[in-house]
Design goal:
heterodimer, A: about 260 residues, mainly alpha, 10 helices, elongated, B: about 300 residues, alpha/beta, Rossmann fold, Alpha-Beta Plaits, six-stranded mixed beta sheet, four-stranded antiparallel beta sheet, 11 helices, about 35% helix
């Protein structure tokens, strides 16, 4: 049992080692930083219009930033990250090295998917961290905004986590696409088209049937609870796409 | 004991057959050369041996086990290098081996042993800055990581300069002689195969046209006998009665099959009072034999 845990940990660690010197980690940290900084700049210049007097400014600050993140940037970042993490293997046809190792084909897919989910968790944590960081900077730069109120770090973290869970369907599907297509362009374009399509169809009455809209829909309610229908369906979609991925991996032929 | 055994191995690309019933047998401890012109199916055969191509059950047996049903067990005993080494160019050579150690649960101390063995001392810089020779050596180190019994090397000298080829040849011989590895090596460099391999197989259009010891190949196929006498024209006429002959300006080239044919020709000339200045069997080298076997007439 202990031996299995050690082996699993080492395999997961190996997947993380592959990310060294790549854009994958940089993107996971830099994009949340960029969005939080953008929001910070907007609050610096237009904060007096955005803050409702007598309320905790953190509430609107966190909610509006994360809503923007969930609607557009989160799906796009997942799409790019999925392509980046799989391109590590596609370049130089690393698959032929991976698939001749005495490792099950199931494990090849599973540990890479796990590393991808880790990147998404890192993104959610980075977003929360930078929201808090810039919020605290506002205390000193714009004390009149009232950011010295409770910073709602728990709510912010839960909202980030909820968005991440609600994006599980995107995570599963984009990973499956990028795992299969050697070209960086095909899965990225497919993902971009679906995301833009979701944006256009956001007011469509059946939008709830389209999992790419779940990160955005899950933030509609400011309810701090993590579990809602979108999150559960998204997680089920991740399970289904992963099962498809395991099947594809087991049948994969390497040229 | 046979390390590799394929039984009527077939493989198709869509409707196009690539391998047409290959029966390969590779014995433990041998250096087995796998020859064939481009497109003959060498790399596909190697992919089948490593489980990278889907083949019928029981058509590929390694260590007596079917690759379809005992894939992981078999791969624990195989190291491979397919064409150009597959490496993470954005990482150092050490990191590349460390990742493979973690994926295969191999102790980290093995890295240093292997780097010493393949004479790769500077492994801290990114692989993208390595020369092809260094990459090939790192690829061999990666293949040896789990201390496998069998090494499958597909064109390991591809793109190497003469010094790199010599080093690679030396390394392969060392691995076979000092470490007891069975080595299956495909190459289009016939001279290399001739220098290294104890056994070989020749593939043509997805079919084996020869399999056996390198010396058997030479003995099996025709040799030339170079003859120079006091009267080459008359000698040629006499020899031609029994053997195909080609008369050049200064020499007669007689096509013979066995060693005793030299004695027969010698007697013919002696009986006809012709002085013999030269009677020299000339074996075809592997390259000539290879082309004879793989070229369509």
């Amino acid at each position: 049992m202990i031996d299995r845990v050690i082996k699993s940990t080492l395999r997961f660690y190996a997947e993380l080692q592959k990310l060294k010197n790549t854009l994958a980690i940089l993107v996971a940290v830099a994009l949340p930083l960029f969005v939080a900084f953008l929001s910070f700049v907007i609050y610096l210049s237009e904060g007096h219009k955005l803050i409702i007097a007598g309320t905790n400014p953190w509430h609107g600050y966190i909610y509006h930033l994360q809503k923007f993140w969930a609607g557009l940037l989160l799906p796009l970042t997942i799409i790019i990250e999925a392509s980046l993490i799989n391109s590590i293997e596609h370049s130089n046809n690393m698959w032929k090295q991976i698939y001749v190792l005495p490792v099950s084909k199931f494990a090849v897919y599973f540990y890479k998917l796990l590393a991808f989910i880790f990147l998404n968790i890192l993104m959610a944590l980075s977003l929360t961290f930078f929201i808090q960081l810039f919020g605290f900077l506002l205390i000193f730069i714009k004390p009149e905004f009232g950011f010295d109120s409770p910073s709602l770090i728990k709510e912010s973290l839960l909202l980030s986590l909820k968005m991440m869970l609600a994006s599980s369907a995107i995570i599963g599907f984009q990973f499956l696409l990028s795992f299969n297509f050697r070209s960086f362009v095909i899965p990225t374009v497919i993902g971009f088209c679906i995301t833009v399509g979701m944006g256009i169809a956001s007011s469509w009455k059946h939008i709830e049937f389209l999992p790419y809209s779940y990160p955005s829909l899950s933030t509609n309610s400011q309810d701090a609870r993590i579990w809602n229908t979108y999150v559960i369906i998204a997680l089920l979609s991740l399970v289904l796409t992963s099962a498809a991925g395991f099947y594809v991996s087991s049948k994969k032929e390497i040229s | 004991m046979n390390v590799i055994e394929t039984k009527s191995l077939v493989y198709d690309f869509g409707s196009k057959p690539v391998l047409n019933g290959i029966d390969l047998t590779v014995q433990k401890g041998s250096i087995f050369g796998f020859l064939g012109p481009n497109g003959s199916g060498k790399t596909t055969t190697i992919r089948a041996l490593l489980g990278l191509a889907r083949v019928p059950e029981k058509s590929v047996m390694l260590f007596g086990k079917d690759i379809r049903t005992h894939r992981i067990e078999i791969l624990k005993n195989i190291g491979s290098l397919i064409e150009y080494p597959a490496l993470y160019n954005h990482l150092s050579g050490y990191d590349n081996l460390h990742i493979l150690c973690n994926l295969t649960s191999t102790p980290k101390k093995r890295i240093k042993e292997l780097l010493d063995l393949v004479l790769l001392t500077d492994c801290s810089k990114k692989v993208s800055k390595y020369s092809l020779g260094m990459k090939q050596r790192l690829g061999i180190a990666a293949a040896l990581l789990t201390d496998p019994e069998l090494l499958i090397l597909d064109e390991p000298t591809n793109g190497l300069d003469p010094a790199g080829i010599r080093d690679m040849r030396h390394l392969i011989k060392t691995l076979n002689q000092d470490f007891g590895k069975t080595i299956f090596i495909s190459s289009h460099l016939l001279y290399e195969v001739e220098m290294m391999c104890s056994h070989l197989a020749i593939l043509k259009e997805g079919k084996l046209v020869f399999q056996g010891r390198a010396c058997e190949l030479k003995n099996k196929y025709t040799k030339l006998l170079l003859v120079d006498t006091s009267d080459n024209k008359k000698s040629a006429e006499l020899i031609e009665q029994q053997y195909p002959v080609k008369l050049t300006e200064n020499l007669i080239e007689a096509v013979v099959k066995e060693e005793k044919d030299t004695a027969v020709i010698s007697r013919i000339l002696f009986r006809n009072d012709i002085d013999i200045y030269r009677l020299e069997p000339k074996s075809q080298n592997l390259e000539e034999l290879f082309f004879n076997l793989t070229t369509n007439d």
